[in-house]
Amino acid sequence: MSSKRDYYELLGVQKSASKEEIKKAFHKLAHKFHPDKKEGDADKFKEVSEAYSVLSDDKRRSEYDSYGKVFGGGSSAGPGAGGFGGFNMDDFTSAFNGSASGFDVGDIFSDLFSGGATRTRRGRDVSIDLEISFRDSVFGTKRTVLLAKTSLCDTCQGSGAAKDTEMLTCTHCNGTGKIHETTNSFFGAVTMVQSCRHCRGAGKIPKEKCRTCRGEGVYKKQDEIEIAIPAGIDGGEMIRLSGMGEAVSGGAAGDLYVKVHIAPDARFKKDGPNILTELSVKLSDALLGVSYKIETLDGPENIDIPAGVTHGEMLQLKGKGVPTARGKRGDLYVKIKINLPQKLSRSARALVEKLREEGI
């Protein structure tokens, strides 16, 4: 462990932290850095485990707070020490008995002591951006994209073998497909089981390799991928296509994540299941009422403007909005904008003057 790291700093807690806060902090970091997890870090895992073994014990914590190290077990466990002085596995595991809900120390260490469990290889996830029209975001659509990514070889279907070639027993794993590797941890020597890199866990290797992928089982190529855009999707939402990411020989393909962007529309905006638009009407039509033809996403529709409609008033066309999961649709709301003339003719002015006299 680094000679300058502070135990409290390692766990990300204040010196005044309670036992429960220390326990929760360790719980989170132990899961994060567990060496058998995809993003694990064995060194950091050892560091936070050492810090917890000291700060979870009242006596050791008191010694550490006073002297910067603890005494016991024959060695120092302070920031300047390299071992785990005073570390007791019984104390370590008992700290979780009846502790944070849903937490089991086995969650962290089960993979280390599983006695043969192997981790499945997985290809990388791929993320792309896709822009669609406003109309397509309302009704949904299907789009096809051309994506360059690592995919399974079409010739050998991922086996890496030439057609009808003989399959030989892998000499590196003796046909088991697994390799036992021993690493040192604060528990001592720990044996972990991993897939054989040479045969990719199959236990067999081809006598003659596939010429298309040169025996790799995968190669980079352009794939056409069809993406189904659901109705009512909002800008910024992600669509996940399981197994459509990059392939890896002897393992599972990653996923494809599509971030959807919606091109703005000059006429329409979404408001949940409803659609908003605006309609400009003449002053005389607003006063007397009239029927207007407006554009909707379903085509032209007639809307009745009631006499005396006010500026900013909202009129409703039912069932012309966004389709919902229940098979229904929201509504189209039309905001009225009354156009006032910039100039009046003499006759028009005379009429307006007469309206003023009548108190209108």
TrEMBL record:
Please, which domain of life does this record's source organism belong to?
Bacteria
Q: Which residues bind Zn(2+) 1?
A: C153, C156, C210, C213
Q: Does the keyword Zinc-finger apply?
A: yes
Q: How is the cofactor bound?
A: Binds 2 Zn(2+) ions per monomer.
Q: Which residues bind Zn(2+) 2?
A: C170, C173, C196, C199
Name all J domain ranges.
6-68
Where the record annotates domain CR-type, the positions are: 140-222
Q: Which GO terms describe its biological process?
A: DNA replication; protein refolding; response to heat
Residue ranges of the CR-type zinc fingers? 140-222
Q: Does the keyword Amino-acid biosynthesis apply?
A: no
Q: Name the coenzymes or cofactors required.
A: Zn(2+)
What keywords does the record list, in alphabetical order?
Answer: Chaperone, Cytoplasm, DNA replication, Metal-binding, Repeat, Stress response, Zinc, Zinc-finger
Q: Where in the cell is it found?
A: Cytoplasm
Name the GO cellular-component terms: cytoplasm
Gene3D superfamilies in the cross-refs: DnaJ domain, Heat shock protein DnaJ, cysteine-rich domain, Urease metallochaperone UreE, N-terminal domain
UniProt CXXCXGXG motif repeat ranges: 153-160, 170-177, 196-203, 210-217
The Swiss-Prot or TrEMBL record annotates one GO molecular function as: ATP binding
Family recorded in the similarity comment: Belongs to the DnaJ family.
Under the subunit heading, UniProt states: Homodimer.
- This protein's domain notes: The J domain is necessary and sufficient to stimulate DnaK ATPase activity. Zinc center 1 plays an important role in the autonomous, DnaK-independent chaperone activity of DnaJ. Zinc center 2 is essential for interaction with DnaK and for DnaJ activity.
Q: What does the protein in this record do?
A: Participates actively in the response to hyperosmotic and heat shock by preventing the aggregation of stress-denatured proteins and by disaggregating proteins, also in an autonomous, DnaK-independent fashion. Unfolded proteins bind initially to DnaJ; upon interaction with the DnaJ-bound protein, DnaK hydrolyzes its bound ATP, resulting in the formation of a stable complex. GrpE releases ADP from DnaK; ATP binding to DnaK triggers the release of the substrate protein, thus completing the reaction cycle.
Q: What is this protein called?
A: Chaperone protein DnaJ
Give the organism the record lists: Candidatus Adlerbacteria bacterium RIFCSPLOWO2_01_FULL_54_21b
Q: What is the lineage of its organism?
A: Bacteria, Candidatus Adleribacteriota
By which gene is this protein encoded? dnaJ
